[in-house]
Amino acid sequence: MARAPKPLPLHAQDLPGLTRLLTEATLGVTDIVEAMHARIASAPLLPAGASGRTAGLTRQVYGAVRGVTRGVGQGLDLLLARLPVALGPELQPPREAWLAALNGVLGDHLQRSANPLAIPMRLRAGGQKQRGLPDELPLQAGTGLLLLVHGLCMNDLQWQQGEQDHGAQLAQALGLQPLYLHYNTGLPIAANARELAGLLAQLHARAPQQRLVLLGHSMGGLLLRSALYQAQGAAWTRAVSHLLCLGSPHLGAPLERAGRGVDLLLGAAPYAAPLARLGKVRSAGITDLRHGRLLDSGPVERAPRATVPLPPGVACHALAGTLGARAAAKTRLLGDGLVPLNSALGLHRNPALCLNFPAAHQHVFEGLGHIELLGSTAVGQRLVEILQSSATSR
C-alpha cells in the first residue's frame, strides 16, 4: 500500500507568500492557454513575435478568468493578513529545504514581486539557532573565521550530512569559527556576490585581525570567486588566506545548457511556441550556471563568459567528485553527476579560459556524487590537511 505523502512543513507566515505565488501561477497558465488558442485559430506559421491574445468574445472570457483570479488572490491576501501569526521554531530542516528549493527555481521572481517567501541573505554562527547580520553574531577569539557558502537550491543546514559537517570538523581540528551563509540562490550570482562582499566588509570591521577561510560548495564557489573579484582592493579581501571550491561548476553546468536547448526547440514549433514559456521558468541563478557566469556583462544568451581569474595572494583549491574512475572519458564528462570534472577543476581546452589551479591544488575523489561531497569524511580530512599546510602559493 502506497504511503500517504508527508504534508508540506509550513509556518503561518508562509501562507500569504504561497497564496500570491499560486495566483501568479494561475495567471501565467491562463496566458499560455490563451496564446495556444490564438495560435491554433490563426495561420500555422504565425511569427513568434505575435501578441498571443485572442479576439472578441474569447478574449473577454480569458479577461474574466484573469479578473476572478486576481480578485480571489487579493481577497485571500486580506484574509490572511488578519490571521494571528503563530511562529514555529526558527530553523526547521524540512521547511528550510523546500523554501531553499523554491528560491533556487523562482528566487529572482520572488524578490521582484516582494514575495515574503524570498530568502534574505544572512549569516549563522555554528551552533546558533537563528540567522543574523554580521553585527549580531557572537565572534570568538581564535585562529580565524571559516565562511561556508552552500549551493543552488540548498541552505546552510544542509552542510550537515549525516554525521559529517565540514564546518564542525574544521572548527574542532583547527580552531576556526564556522559561519554559514544562507541566501537566495535564484538571484544572479553577481548580485549575490556584491551583497556578500558587503557582509564580509562588516564582518572584517568587527574582527580585523582574524584570517578568513572561504569554502563554497557548487554555486557557493562561484559566488565567492565573484565576491573576491568585485571587491578587489577591499580590506576584507586581504584577510582571505584560502578559497576552497567543492564541486563548483567553474566552466558551467551542462544540465542548464540542455534546458536552454529545449527552450529553443519549443520556440521553433508554431503550436508549441507558447509552451516554451514553461521551459523559461528558471531563475537567473540557474541561468548563470550555464557558462559559469560571474559578472553582469551583457545579455546572458549572447555574452561570452568573462574570464574571472583566481584571486592573487590566496591559496585556491578545487575539490571534485567523480562517479567512476577518473581516467575514463565518460567519467570526466559526467563528473559528480551534475558538474563535469573539467568544469570543477577549471580546465578548458582553450588555455585562455583555464583557471590555472596548481596541479597540487586539484583534488579528485572517485566514487562521490555532487551531494556526497558534503557528507564524505575523506573530503573533510583533505580540507583539514589543506588548511594545516603552510603553503599559500597558487
From TrEMBL:
Q: Which Gene3D superfamilies did the record assign?
A: alpha/beta hydrolase
Question: GPI inositol-deacylase PGAP1-like alpha/beta domain spans which residues?
Answer: 205-261
Q: Which residues cross the membrane?
A: none
SUPFAM superfamilies for this protein: alpha/beta-Hydrolases (SSF53474)
Sorted UniProt keywords: Hydrolase
- This chain belongs to the protein called Alpha/beta hydrolase
**Organism of this sequence:** Inhella proteolytica
In which domain of life is the source organism classified? Bacteria
**InterPro entries in the cross-refs:** AB_hydrolase_fold, PGAP1-ab_dom-like
Q: Show the GO MF annotations.
A: hydrolase activity, acting on ester bonds
Instruction: Please give the coiled-coil regions recorded for this protein.
Output: none
One Pfam match: PGAP1
